[in-house]
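Lab notebook, bench 4. The sequencing result for the construct came back, and we need a structural model before the next group meeting so we can plan mutations. Quick request posted to the team channel:

Model the 3D structure of this chain.
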Amino acid sequence: MDRRDFIHKAAFAGSATGIFPKILLSKEAPAGKVRLGFVGVGSRGHALASIAAATPDTEINAICDISRQSVDKTLSMLARQGKKAPAVYDKGNEDFLNLVRRDDLDAVIIATPWHLHVPVAVAAMKAGKYAGVEVPAALTVEECWELVDTHEKTGSHCMMLENVCYRRDVLAILNMIRQGLFGELTYTHCGYQHDLRQVLFNDGKTDRSPGGAEFGAKAAEGEARWRTEHYVNRNGDLYPTHGIGPVAHWLDINRGNRFAYLTSTATKSRSLQKYMVKEGGKDHPNTRVNFRCGDVVTTVIQCQNGENVMMIHDTSSPRPYSLGFRAQGTEGIWMEDGSTIYLEKHSPAPHTWEPAEAYLKKHDHGIWKKFENQARNAGHGGIDFFVIRAFIETVRRKKAPVIDVYDAATWSVLSPLSEASVARGSSPVEIPDFTRGKWKTNRRIFGLTDDY
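Done. Here's the predicted structure in token form:
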């Protein structure tokens, strides 16, 4: 499916949601159960469904995916866990519209390809359901506003399932920042630095001879069927939320602070074409594809209160994984890579790094102390457990999510805005205030309890 098809399908699905009333009355859940539907049960959706199914007092009543293989895999997983078989919606890209109509769902979890995130989330909110959407929540400025506007018109909530916000070290650093150990925060660093070449070309198949240079709906599998097209058609930070989510909490973005504007610069694009030659041979037709996305995209964000954020997107280069976190204030600094720290009032020697481990342990967030055992086998080092738990508890308690629709819009919009800045020769681009001024009085909501 090419970029034009992306836009056509998303527009069609989005317009179809207009047939729904703002709130659809639903049957009461038995004994406080949270009743879930899943749209997208491929690799990511299957993993999230597995966690949700293992959570007490939840029901998965419906699943939707156009891949029968993904549906069958998820049905088998649920059967192994002793769960009843959910209703299945697999009749094309718009069958999710039938799923969200159901009156036995409290919430819909969305793990589709990116271009369907907004159409499904909007349909779920218009049907009176909570929407839990994978990252990024939206692809365009207009889509970000659509999420916000739909929430405000319907009263239904949307939570972006940004799992890195629950990483153990970044939560400990959040505690330390709020306790003033870094002084006043002035600068942060983050990003998504992850060699995705195998994911982008046949989704990391071990046997790639032939086929390791394939992508697109007809030739490849998994994320390579759709994600690689973004690298062909776009030049900017394609995946900002893993890095910016934790940093936004550190800086109280949308809660006393806001992102004001950004500038982005992209390198030339070389690594993906080189990988094509290596895997498919110099005569493979994909070696002639022009990948627009630069190998490394650097974005600098200016905050309203004077802080800077540097954000790096580097997914085409051969490199180890790192999100490159750094927290720097008037009294100290922490660096993720190497896990080193220096606190002017606490470190034993001036101008000398020390290991951060003891500080991270001392300031470990209570949520990790409380649920470490339950999270042990969940994906991405346990953080998948925490983000799904947060969503389920939000729905159960009928509250606004701790990662709300304004966060989803603010973090996701950095991607299209970085594209705009690159296209304009790295010119500054203003970042919309999706809160419409409420950031000035909004209070912190994330990380305040040991529960979710």
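The longest helix spans residues 383-397.
Will bring this to the meeting.
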